[in-house]
Specification:
Length: about 300
């Protein structure tokens, strides 16, 4: 009996410790969710609240005076339609082109029979730490004839060193016997890459595609730097940035806003702008969520 009691004691302690761990774990997770979601919900509430009423403060999770005026102010600009088309086009085309070119480079440097793979990898990694600077980069874009061109959004960023390393690491985990058996059957490298390697790399490609799409969608500095004089090539983020600047410049005194009858303020328009720019990425993420963790972890595990 004593032996049985001694044998039952560790189970009770382990069970109690497990319960305490679960309680602490859920408390931490709930706090993390609150800290993460509150700024988003607060921004949404401010964007749906009357701008003049927002100045009083006290807006937390629910708008006090509901209105769509903030969103109408953001969406009323005529150039916003063109900017939306350009932004969607550069996001789709830029993601597809960069993903394919980067994956092709990753396939090359992942092949064991490629003599210069180490040198080429080091060369690309150096670009992550060494940059020529803004002025030489601008002169290069100008000499290439990419100023005032849509392709300035696509060509300079066709290859990403970081994304190449992520994809290459994943490809290193694919058995070489698959490519070797295809070579025995007479398949070339392009056919092996497209028909064998790419289908096996769906998790990491989806993850990298999300990185690229977010970067393309949120980019505005290249539009300001290279296409600021061409209204037909403006982007959504650049237009929203200009909108924020124009609202901020006239927001110095509240009486002016009251006299014009405007119900928007910089704070409310800024909140509406944040929600508008976040919606596409929020809608895209759930479709790629199942690949997200797998794409970052599978390639890093070696047996």
């Amino acid at each position: 009996m004593k032996k049985q009691e001694k044998g039952h004691a560790p189970r009770y302690k382990a069970s109690f410790g497990g319960v305490m761990f679960d309680v602490i774990k859920w408390i931490i997770l709930i706090l993390f969710v609150i800290v993460t979601l509150y700024p988003v919900l607060n921004t949404l509430a401010v964007s749906l609240n009357d701008g003049m009423d927002t100045i009083r403060g006290g807006i937390y999770l629910i708008p006090r005076k509901f209105t769509w005026q903030n969103y109408l102010t953001v969406l009323r600009k005529d150039s916003l339609k063109i900017a939306t088309i350009v932004t969607v086009s550069r996001t789709v085309i830029g993601t597809v082109v960069q993903l394919f070119v980067t994956a092709m480079l990753a396939y090359i440097v992942s092949r064991k029979d490629f003599v210069f793979k180490k040198f080429l990898t080091i060369l690309y990694v150096l670009t992550m730490y060494v940059n020529a600077g803004l002025i030489p980069g601008y002169l290069l874009i100008k000499n290439l004839g990419l100023l005032n061109s849509f392709w300035v959004y696509i060509i300079p960023g066709m290859v990403s060193a970081f994304n190449m390393i992520v994809i290459r690491t994943f490809m290193n985990g694919i058995p070489d016997s698959l490519a070797e058996s295809a070579e025995v059957d007479g398949a070339g490298h392009m056919r092996i890459f497209i028909q064998i390697i790419l289908p096996l790399c769906k998790p990491v490609l989806a993850t990298v595609a999300l990185f690229i799409a977010v970067g393309q969608w949120n980019s505005w500095f290249d539009a300001m730097l290279y296409n600021s004089f061409n209204e037909n090539l403006t982007t959504l983020q650049y237009e929203l940035m200009k909108l924020l600047s124009s609202v901020s410049s006239q927001s110095g005194n509240i009486d002016a806003l009251k006299n014009t009858g405007s119900m928007v303020t910089p704070m409310s328009v800024r909140a509406a702008t944040t929600i508008v720019t976040s919606i596409p990425i929020i809608c895209l993420y759930p479709w790629l969520q199942r690949y997200f963790v797998a794409g970052l972890t599978i390639g890093g595990v070696k047996e």
